[in-house]
User: Fold these one by one.
Assistant:
Number 1:
Amino acid sequence: MKFSEMSFDGNILARGFWLYVWDIRSSARRCLYVGRTGDSSSANASSPFRRIGQHLDDRPKAKANAIARHLRTAGIEPTKCTFKMIGIGPIFPEQTDFARHKIYRDKVAALEHQLAQHLRGRGLEVLGVHSTPKSSPKGDIADILRIVDAQIQ
C-alpha cells in the first residue's frame, strides 16, 4: 500500500488573479507548467487550489485539464509524477464585471508570458504555449521572478 500526503497554505484558496508554476517530476524527466487564474470567457477568477483538480482531471470529456493533456502528449503518465505548485497572488482581486475582468486578465496573461519565457531562458522545459500578450503589463515582474527563482532550483 502506498502513502501520499498533501499540505498547503490556506491563502491558496483565495479567489483572484494568480500566477502559478507547477514543478513536475517523473523518474526520467522534469518539466514545468506556468498558468494563471482569470477565465477568458467569464468574469471569474478562481483560486489556484480550484485549478489543481481541473488541471489533472482524467475524465474523457474534461476540458480544463491542460497539464494532464500536455504530460500525456509528452509520454509522461501523471499518476507516476510528483507535483509542486508555487502560487503567487492574488496579484489582483476578482472583478465584478467582465469589462474590468478583461483588463486584469490581460495584465496577468502578459506576466504569465514573461514568466514562462524567463523559465525557458533558464534552460527549463516549460509545457504549453504562452502566446505573446496583447499588451505588456503595467508594473514590474521582478518580484514574481525572484519568488519563482528561489523556489525553482
Number 2:
Amino acid sequence: MTVEPWFVLLVVAISPFALLGISYNRFVVQVASTNATWANIDTQLQRRHDLIPNLVRTVAGYAAHERDTFEAVTAARTRAIAAIPTDVSVDQQARAEDALTQGLTSLLAVTEGYPPLKSDRNFRDLQRQLVETEDRIAASRRLYNLEVAAYERRRRSLPSNLVANAFGFDERRLFEIQDAAAAHAVEVGF
C-alpha cells in the first residue's frame, strides 16, 4: 500500500494547527480548573468571614474591656471581605487574609484569660467551626497553588509558551501566606 504524496503534504500542513488547537484547549481546561479551585478558597474564606461576628460577639460578652482587639478583628474582617472582588489581585487578598488571621489569633489569645468563656458551649462550637474552616482554607490553598504551579510550568515551557503568549494566557499568582504568624491555622486550646 502506497501513501499518496498529497496526503502526506496534507497531514504535514494540518499537524501544526491540530497541535495548536490541542495546546489551546489544554490551557482552557487549566484556566477553568484554576478558577474552580480559587472558587473553593473563596467559599471557605466566606465561611470564615461569616463565623467571625458570632465569635466576636461571644467573646465580647465575657471580655468587654478588650474593645481594641474586637475592633481590630472586625476591621480586618471588613478589609478581607473587601478583597474578595475579582478585580483584587491574589496577593492583595492574601495580605488581607493574613491580617485577619493575626486578628483572630489575638482574639483567641484574649480568651485564655476567661475560663468561663472557654467552657461556654457556643464558644467551643464556634472555635471548632473556625478550626475546621482554617483547615479547609489551607487544603483549598494547597490545591489552588498546585493548579497554578502546573499552569505556570506549562505556560513558560516551549512550545506551550508560544500558544500562551499568542492567545493571552496570563500569569497566575500563588496564594501565599507571608506573615509567619498567619502561616499556621489558628490554634484553639480547651
Number 3:
Amino acid sequence: MKRPMTPYGYAVMRRELRKLKAMRPELAHAIEVARANGDLKENADYHAAKDKSGMVEAKIRDYETKLSVAEVIDTSKSREAGRVVFGAEVKIEDLDSGAERTVTIVGADETDTSKGYISFESPFGRALIGKELGDVAKVIAPGGAREYEIMDVTYLDWESKAKEVES
C-alpha cells in the first residue's frame, strides 16, 4: 500500500538514510576495536557498539521500507484555489479562543508538530482536508470538539524545498 509523502519529506528521509548508511564502516570499526579488548561477556564497549549498530540497522530498514512504499505527491503543480489538500499550508483560527496558527498537511511519516506539520490521517488533518477558504472545520479530539475557521490556504513549492535538501 502506497503512503503519500511530499517531495521534501522524501528528500529528507533519503538524506537521513544516506547518513545512516555512511555510519556503517565507523560502527563496524568500533565493534572490532571493542572486540579486541578481551572477554566479550564482560566487555561493555563491545555491547554498546553492537547495540548502536543494531539500532542504526533497524532505522535503515525502517527508512528503506518507508521510501519503498512512498507515493510522492507535489501539490505545487495542481492548485485548487483555496481548497485544503495534501501538502497545503493552512492558516486557521480557533473559534473559541481566537488564536491563529498555521499548519501544513503532510504524510504520516513527515509529521512534526513543532514545525506545524500534521498528518492528513490525523483527526485534525482529516477535518481540514477538502475544506475551503472561510469554511469551519470541526475537530473531534480527546480534549473535546473544537472548531477552526480556514483563514488562508497556500500551496508550497515542495520540489524546490526538496532540491535544497538534496544539494
Number 4:
Amino acid sequence: MFIETKRLVIRGFLPEDAAELHEILGDPETMRYAEPAYDFEKAKEFLNSFCIAQNGALAAVSRESGKLIGYILFKEYEKDVYELGWFFNRAYWRQGYAYEACKALIDHAFESLKSKMVFAETIDVEKSIPLMRKLGMKPREELHSPTMDNEGNIATLYYYSVENK
C-alpha cells in the first residue's frame, strides 16, 4: 500500500526502518498507554515478524525529510472491518500528523477497500480519544472493559468506531 497526503507518505515497512521504528516504540512516554517500551532487538523482531511478514502495520514517513515518524496499525480485523492504531515519534506530536495519516487510511478503507467499519481502542483519554472523535469515531458503549496499564493500575479500555455511510 502506498498513500500520499500533504505531508506524509504512508507505505509498508522496510527492514531498514528498524532504527527509526525503535525511536518510536522505544520511547516510554510514547508507549505509556500501550505496553512497556521496546529495546532495539524487540523493535527489530516486531518490525520483521508483524509489520513486514504479516503486513500488519504501515509506516508514516515525512515527505519533507524522508524520516519515519509514525507506526500505524491498519489491519483487517474481520471481513470489511479494519482496526486502526498509531504511535508517532514524540517530536512530531500535536502537529496533526496522526490525524492526517489516520484520516487518509479511514478514507482508503471506505473508498477503496469498501470497508463497513474502522475501529480503534485506547486507555488514553487525554490524547487518543480526542483524536478518535476528531476522526468521526463514536464510542461503542457496549465495548469497554477493564484492563491494566503499564504500571499495573486498573484502566478502562475504550472502543471507538466509524462506519461507512
